[in-house]
Amino acid sequence: MCGITGFWIKNSGSSAESLRKTVKIMSDALVHRGPDDCGIWVDENNGLALGHRRLTVIDLSSAGSQPMKSADGRYIIIYNGEIYNYKEIAERLRSKGVGLRGGSDTEVLLEAISVWGVDDTLQQLVGMFAFAVWDRKKNILVLARDRMGEKPLYYGWVNNGFVFASELKAIKRYPGFSGEIDRDSLSLLQRYSYIPSPYSIYKNIRKLPQASLVEINVREKVEKIRTYWDISDKARNGVENIIADDSNAVLSNLHEKLTKTIRGQMISDVPLGAFLSGGLDSSLITALMQECSSKPVKTFTIGFHEAEFDEAIYARQVAQHIGTDHTEIILQASDALSVIPKLPELYDEPFADTSQIPTCLLSSIARNEVTVCLSGDGGDELFGGYNRYLWGDRMRRYMAIMPEPFRRTISALITNVSPRWWDKIYSIIMPLLPDRLGFRNAGNKAHKVANLMLGKGIEESFLDMVSYWRNPNDLVLHSSEPETVFSDTSMRSIFKDYAQRMMYIDQRTYLPDDIMVKVDRASMGVSLETRAPFLDHRLVEFAWKVPVSMKLHKGRGKWLLREMLKKYLPDRLIERPKMGFQPPIGEWLRSGQLRDWGESLLDSNRLKNESFFDSDLVRKCWLEHLTGKKDWTGQLWTVLMFQAWKEAQ
Questions:
Q1: Comparing 383-397, 428-442, 450-464, which segment has the lowest mean pLDDT?
Q2: Which residue among 152, 335, 406, 597 has its CA within the 20 to 30 Å range from the CA of 91?
Q3: Residues 278/301, Cβ–Cβ less than 8 Å
């Protein structure tokens, strides 16, 4: 895994030494992504410079160093990622008489582009990647990103120059970068807790969307963006060609495909392990890894002293049952506090998924023993793991038969009771409920259901479910929230099922722009590569053909994965409530560990002077949270992460 950066200046007149110096400063900002090697290539005549930081995982020799020039001298590439089927592509190249100098996937990717071109090569790739390739013959720069958005790539225009990088911190080092904050993007952050593609926190800088490539002609200041794999087409094809086989046949097919994917992703020339939370997805990935391995797989988990947030006990039991070499660390609040000051630098742009904290700590622990870790990310979005997929369809049906005045009355009754009181009520009745009705944060979920009752259409209801601030333009001064996938109604006729539509939107937004961002920055911050077998595009395409009834069944999500896991684990380790990976931030903000920090960032005078937020609204929520009148954890964290990020700039 690596970090890439570069720029192309129109009519620069810059010397090779000047170009080299600038791109070196930019690539040094990415040293955490690639501590093992640094490479630079410049084209003085065209004002182009490419920089690369390398983390050696496959082919540890200098034959894998970048930037790399194709054998015919036409193409120069810098690349971040892993091509899992590079050996198969290498054989195709050899059959065409192409000689390969080393054993790296970088060389295979580059020579494939030389033989077939960028577009045809992209169709052959299985993996995660972001790369830039310079065509010396046509004087065209092409950037590309993997299908599911696992690897990041930012780009934009600064002073008539085109700049790009794996992370914003490299772009910020480009001469003349102003760093003007985009208030419209800030409003998106307040709604979702992340900034969805193609937007970024800075004006004139964008994220390249998943499964896209962009051709740059700097002389005409032109960008030509296109997709090479359209998830909407794959989803449409899937729901129109639902698998008619019985569940046993589908289970067997999925087991075969997932095992093959995991075998491919276990290829590494450095130590490899797995994140194990004890949940369904990571347990299944770990079980299949162990089945494929001749020795105990190294697994890693963290837990919290607060029992209601701690999954470590389940991970420990899974590890013992499967027989892995397990490492477990129990965290104190002080451990989380030590991470929070590092978040603005680590995440580059404000990012407010609170599970970023344990993810950072888990990555740091794993890096002490391995260089690569597999994870269970993507299982929820592909196979129906989130409670909202179940609730959404139920709520839609209930609302259809409830008069609007009645719904508003019920909603008001629910929200008049604070989340903390709902939590207490739920803790009393929970022992009487079946396991499938066991979940955490009952109070917050009750309030979300209450808000759903006020919704009208499916998209509006789902947007409410995933929103932190429901009206971010009221919070962010002088902002106008941009459109996102939620505004796209073109897929309504395709998805007859409510859950399908939500899974599609999550695969376009939450998965690449929250989950993948969280894991990539946390892991690469300590030079750890992560791989997500569920996100193999062939598995994604297969998942869209699986009937919804095999995903959501008898009030439980991920039925198919549960059935598969029964081969490896007893029911007691499978059939338990979903917990997630969230630390008790809300309590820490109230109890004192984070209270002073929060008060400083949300000081009324400070908010007024900086003039990004409606200070009265923020202070109202802060005080209500401190007194326990309401739980504003998620909403306050989006504001706090921006404030902390801005303070660190």
A1: 428-442
A2: 152
A3: yes
Strands 298-304 and 325-331, sheet pairing: parallel
Burial class (CB within 10 angstroms; exposed 0-12, middle 13-18, buried 19+) of 334: exposed
C-alpha 191/C-alpha 460 separation (Å) is: 13
**Token output for 37:** 């090697």
38 catalytic? Reply is: no
Query: What is the distance between the alpha carbons of residues 211 and 95, in angstroms, rounded to a whole number?
Result: 28
Give dist(CA 78, CA 74) in Å, integer: 14
Residue 195 phi, psi dihedral angles, 5° rounding: -105, 110
The span from the CA of 504 to the CA of 509, in Å, is 9
Q: Which of 47-56, 144-153, 234-243, 257-266 has the lowest mean pLDDT?
A: 47-56
Q: What pTM, to 2 d.p., does this model score?
A: 0.91
Predicted confidence (pLDDT) per residue in 7-46, tens digit: 999 877 789 999 999 999 999 999 999 888 889 999 999 9
Nearest residue to 362 via CA among 385, 337, 339: 339
47: helix, strand or coil: coil
- Active site residue: 2, 38, 360, 621, which one? 2
8 Å CB contact between 341 and 241:
no
